[in-house]
Structures are given as structure tokens and as C-alpha cells.
Fold this protein.
Amino acid sequence: MHEFAAAFATALRLIGTLDPDLVEIVGLSLRVSLSAVLAAALVGLPLGAALAAFRFPGRRVVVVALNAMMGLPPVVVGLVLYLLLSRSGPFGALGLLFTPAAMIAAQAVLITPIVAALTRQTVEDLLVEYDDLLRVLGTGPFHTIATLLMEARVSLATTVLAGFGRASAEVGAVMIVGGNIDHVTRVMTTAIALETSKGDLPLALGLGLILIVLSLAVNAAVSIIRDSARGSFV
Amino acid sequence: MLRRTFIAAAVAVAALSALPQAAPAADRFITVASTTSTEDSGLFKYLLPLFTAKTGVEVRVVSKGTGQAIDMARRGDADVLLVHHKPSEEKFVAEGYGVRRLPVMYNDFVVVGPKGDPAGIRGLKDVSKALARVAGAKAPFVSRGDDSGTHKAEQALWKAAGIDPAAAPGGWYKALGQGMGATLNAAAAMDAYTVADRGTWLSFKNRAGLDVVVEGDQRLFNQYGVILANPQKFPHIKAADGQAFIDWLVSSDGQKAIADFKINGDRLFFPNANEPGA
């Protein structure tokens, strides 16, 4: 399987020479996925905590729906967003189609349910311990959510990482709303799809290797933070 | 202490990368809907910087199959359309979505197939006869199946041979619904025949056992046309810059640039903007 050896060599060459195209694509990929994760966390974390902490009619339906949305097909999300952002669509005047902003939106839509659903589960488990305490203290809703998120922050780090993983691995939605435009909306995954299309399999595989290493680096960084967090409790 | 520094740094990186990049001073660009054959062959990577250097207008190409590119232009999501199916292009203009269709360049389609050539069509000059033999031998054949210019051309060839391959029993005909590169990958993996445009074929790197088996038939002629989206229908269209791009493509500069694009000494596209009937 000479393609794997060639892929490894290609990846090393691209990284070693700091290939400008590669740097540009990696930069854009990080920018898009990190922005999407930020947006998803801002919405999903409080939403998940609220769902766990508060009771309201229809809560079970919302929980089930949120869990189901973790499996939203990316290509469908991309298509729907394309139709919404298209010039002949309702939000066409914003001119967001084929820009990184559209890609961030698509990824955010995909990972917010993941973040929210996993947060809900994590906080629900936490409430077993904290429910009585919070009731006794009589904390208001905002404080409740803030406290719960703060207490669960180490576990929630994994949740956010899951969101980042899903976002950076995604290709269907960003291909449709981004258009894989050279130097504008080409990210790691769409570049891999393009090189595969051109039959340059070693290059595609090499880019894939780099993407995996990138993901490892992000996860390693968070792990270091988490470990030192645990250390400080001792 | 270390942890806080780390977290602060991580948040800073995330925040910085979330900021929208500063827009370049001359932020002029047009959006061109084009085909996978022009993108995958590397033509645009070569051609577009020349236009941008001359005019300062960036060209953003979204490449899909011809059918999808036309649909995109119909929605007003493209300033310029550059595809290769004349009947569809003329319909686009006739329906008022485009201003005018101009010929730009041509190349040809080829039939590629496995070196073993189970249908025995290598060297045939009549492509429809060759396809008939493929059907007769029930040899594996993969089709773009995606409403692209190449797909429509392939369908026309089957029709000329009087065969409906999708209805043929035996499962030898496989419609993939993919771009040219992906289809060639599949043909290489399945040792199947397929119709490809010469541009993508020449720049394709995963040929495995595939080779050109049929070429040269007049019906394999592949003409590319360019159209400006109608600014009266789509007021937001960048008509001036889009027209500038079209003007450059058909000018002697643009035509020469197209002719100069070669891979391993082979020319991929032949400029013919000065052929009025093309």
C-alpha cells in the first residue's frame, strides 16, 4: 500500500516546508470550527443546564427532540442553509453564501444539539448531588445554571471537545454552503475531498493525517488543562 | 498559575480566530459557477491569477456539475456561468436568466476503460458502436449520473446507439451521481469503462489500470460557453466585473492563457471564442 507511505511523506513535507496553501487551509479550518464551537457552547451549555434543572410541560418532548438532533445529517443542514442563504432565499440579501460565516453557521447548527444534549445529561447527573443544596439556598434560575455549569466544567470540557471534533470533521454542509472556493472557503475536509476527486490520493491522505494530528493537538491541550484542574483540587 | 496561563492563551487563540478577518482593501470579487472539469483539471488555478493580476478582481469559483451550476445561477447565486452543455446554456439565456452566451474553448470527451478491454472497443472510431459493444458484453460502465455536461453528453451517445443503459438488465451500468474525479476513481477501482472529458483525464492521478480506448469521434466534441447572469433579473449581480471577466476570457490574452495551459506538454483546452457558431 504505497499510498500510505506516500501520504506520510507528503504530510511531513507539507508541514516541514510550512506550505503556504496548507497554512491558509489549516488557519481557516481552525477559525471556522473554533467559532462554531464557541457559538454552540454559548447557546448549548446554558440550554442543556436549563433543561436539566427546570421542569416545564413538554420537557420530555424537548429532551427527546434535542437528542434526536444530535443525528442531524450534515448534508441536509447544508442544503437547508443553502436555500435560506441563497439570493433567491429569505436571507439572500445578507450575502453570506459562500463565505466562512455561512460555514460557521452550518457547523454551529450541527454541534449545538450535541453540546446541549450532553450538557443536559451531565448536569442531570450532577443534580442528584446538588438539587437539595440549591433548593435550600433558594438560588434563582440564572444562578442555578451558572453554578451547575461551573461545577460540571471538567466534564463539560469533553462535551465541548466532542462538538469540536464533529465540527472539524464535517465536510457535507460546509461544501454546500461554502462552495470550497480556493483561498476563501476551502478547509481541510473540503480540500481532502477535492484532492481525492483529482485522483491525488497520497495528498488527500496526507492532509487527512494532518487533520487528525490537529485534532489530537487540540484534545491534548484540553487534557493538560483538565489534569492541572484536577491537580488543584487535591 | 501555569493552568491559568494556558487557559487564557487558549481562550485568546479561540477568540482571535473567531474574529472576522480584516477585509482586504480592494475587496472586489465575482462568483463564477462552473463545472468540476474546469476545476479538477487545474485550469482555474492557472488562469484566474492572470485575470486578477490584470484587473484586481478576485474570481471565486464554485464548481459543481453543469446542472447544479445552472441551478445555482438560476437562483442568482453566481455572477457568471461557465459550463459545457450548449442546449442548456441557450435555454438559460432564452429564459431570461443570462444575458448572452459566448463560446470560450473546447476539448473533447474520451472513453476510458480497463487495459484488458473486455468489450473489445479499443481503437474504434464510432463511439456509439463502441458503447453498443459495452452494453452487449455487459462490461462494467460507470456514469456521472449527475445531470452534468459530461453526463448529458454520455446520455446522448447512448441514445444515438439506441440503448437505454439504465433499463438494461445485469447491473453493469452504474450511475454514481458524482463529479468527474470521483467517477474516475470509481472506474479505476471497478475496472470499468466511463466517459470523461480529456481535461480532467489528463490531470487525473489515480488512473490505476485505466487508459483511453475510444477518441476522435465528432460526437465527442465538448464545447464550453460563458454567460453573464442577467442584472435585470438579479439586481445584486456584479455585472461590470462579471462582464470584464468574460471579455478577458474571449480576448486574445485570455485565449492565449487558455492555450498555454498544459500538463506534461499536453494542451487540455483549445480556445475558440472567435468561432461564432461554436
Notes: Residues 30 and 93 of chain B are 19 Å apart (CA to CA). Residues 2-18 of chain B form the longest helix (17 residues). The two ends of chain B are 72 Å apart (CA to CA).
